[in-house]
Structures are given as C-alpha cells and as structure tokens.
Amino acid sequence: MYLQMKFDKDGNVTSFEKKKMELYHELSLQARDLRFQHFTSITARNNNIIIRMEALKAVVTPNSLLVLDFRGLGLERWLVLELAPQLNGDHGALATHSLPFEFRALEAILQHRVNTLQARLNEVHPVILDILESLVDPKLLSADRSKLHILLQNRKNLSELETDIKVFKDSLLKILDEVEMIEELCVTKWTDPRVFEESSLGIDHAEEMELLLENYFMQAEELGNTTRELKGLIDDSESVIFINLDSHRNVMMRLNLQLTMGTFSLSLFGLMGVAFGMNLESTFEEDPKVFWLVTGFMFLGSGLIWRRLLSFLGRHLEPTVPPQIPTVWKRNQINSKGGEVKSGLR
Known about the structure:
Blueprint lengths: L1 E7 L4 E6 L1 H8 L12 E6 L2 E6 L2 E5 L3 E5 L7 H13 L12 H35 L9 H32 L2 H7 L1 H5 L1 H8 L4 H73 L11 H29 L9 H19 L1
Antiparallel strand pairs: 1-2, 1-6, 3-4, 4-5, 5-6
Helix pairs in contact: 2-3, 3-4, 3-8, 4-8, 5-8, 8-9
GO cellular component, one term: mitochondrial inner membrane
Protein name: Magnesium transporter
Pfam families: MRS2-like
C-alpha cells in the first residue's frame, strides 16, 4: 500500500491509500520505476516525472502531483501550508499559469530542497564562526576540549551538507547536459495538442525548463561555495591554533631550559660549599672574611656560567640571517638587468 497525498492544478488536496499495483496501472509505470533507489534523482517515464529528494518521493503528472509515503518524515507542515499555494500560483511560482502544471510542481519541490539545504547551512554557520573566534585567540594557552568537540561535530555536519549539495547539483547537471531529458520533462507538451502547437509556434517549453533547472543549479552552486569557504576557514583557523599552541609550548620549553641551566650553574659551584662544609680543619675557617669571599665567588661564577649558557642558547635558537650580497655584485646584477632591458628595447 502507498499512502499518498494528491494535489491537483488548483491546489486541492486529497489523501488516501492505494495499492501498489493500482498505482502502477494508473500511472502506466513499472514496479522498478517507483523503487526510488537513488537518494536524489529526477527522471521522466511515460509522461510522468519521478522525483526523489532525500525523504521526499513524488510523481508529477500533467494534471496532478502525488507525494508518496510522507508520514513521519517531517513534511506535513510544508505539504499542508506551503505546497498547495505554490501549486495554485499564489506565491508567484514562475509568475503565471501560462506554463504547464509540471513547471509549478517541479519548482515547488526544487525550492523546498534548496530551502532545506540553506536551513542546514544557516544552522551550522554561526556556531562554527563563534567557536573559531574563541579558539583563535592569541592569548589561548590550551584549546578547550568541549569547544573542539562541538567544532568536530559541526565540521562533520558541514561535510555531510557539502555531499548533499553536490549530489543535488549532479542530479540537475545530468539533466542539463541532455537535451532529450529536458524535452521529456515537459510532459504536458506530449499530452496536450494545444501546448504542442504553442511550442511549435515559438513558446519553447524546453527552454523554459532549462532556465528553471539552471536557476536552482546556480542556487545550489552558491550554497556549495559558501560551504567550501567555511571549511577553508576551519582549516586556516586550525593552522592558527596550532601555531599559537606551538608558540606557547616553545616559550615554556625555553623557560624550562633556562631554569635547568641556572640549576646546573648553582649546583656546579655548590660543590665548594660542600667541600667547606666537611668537618676538615684548615686555616680558612678562622678568617671571618673567607665566608663572604667564597659565597660571592660562588654566586659570581654561577651567574657567569648561566649567562654564558644563555648566550649559547640564543645563538643556536635564533634564525640564521642570510648573507648579504656584496655591493659590487649588486651593481653587476643591476647593470646586467639594465643591459637586458636595453637590448630588449633595441
């Protein structure tokens, strides 16, 4: 059984269930035509347009639009409040009733798909920008794991959105590349002699159908561009975050190395204190000035060694400066360039 909602040219809606075989015979279709194997597809069969847009499954005939298996898919609001007025022309779909019914039905479905993709993009776009703004702070010493988790989840959603946009674009591009497929989508042209006569007199319905598909292809292209720009911004921000973290990590490593060198310097001259602290008699302990002399020598020697180690560290960590070009070489290069220019002018 197929639960279907039927819309006629005037926007009247009826909902009922019908057996699959009865629906096949009514539409002159085969069972394979309504299997909806592809996630997104637009095909023409026996003067019918079979559409699959993610969860939406529909069949457009010259006189009606059938939406199949719509229960539990979150489409009820759109079907009841928006689709019927669009099919009736109240929202200006393609402006007038001069074009056949399938144009209004196809535009309503494509517009719904584009709006769905746009809504998904609007949902993740501000969240990603806010997280990136907080993570790229140069004062950041460590990345907030909770924000990184949210960013990872939204990046996954963004990748899925980019894939859905690409599939939607490819389905339209596949039709735009085939003139015969565009002609087949103009189902009224082949069922109504008057429409066929109008088409032969200059009202080219195939051209109008091509313009319709190109319009939504360009809208999908803009969504795809925005998605790619947002992913590029995420990649650039990740690079900035890693640079900031590496910078702070280098500062901490340098400070740790300086403290280690200072400790080494004090420990080296601390051996003198250990030697004098032994219970050995000598003539030095009798002179009260020797204590201050040895202590000062220890601190002075430790400071000199620590300073020497710092200068050694600075020379090896600072980037090397490229050698300067001698003045004579510069003049020769300028003269040679000038000679080339003059020879070129000659």
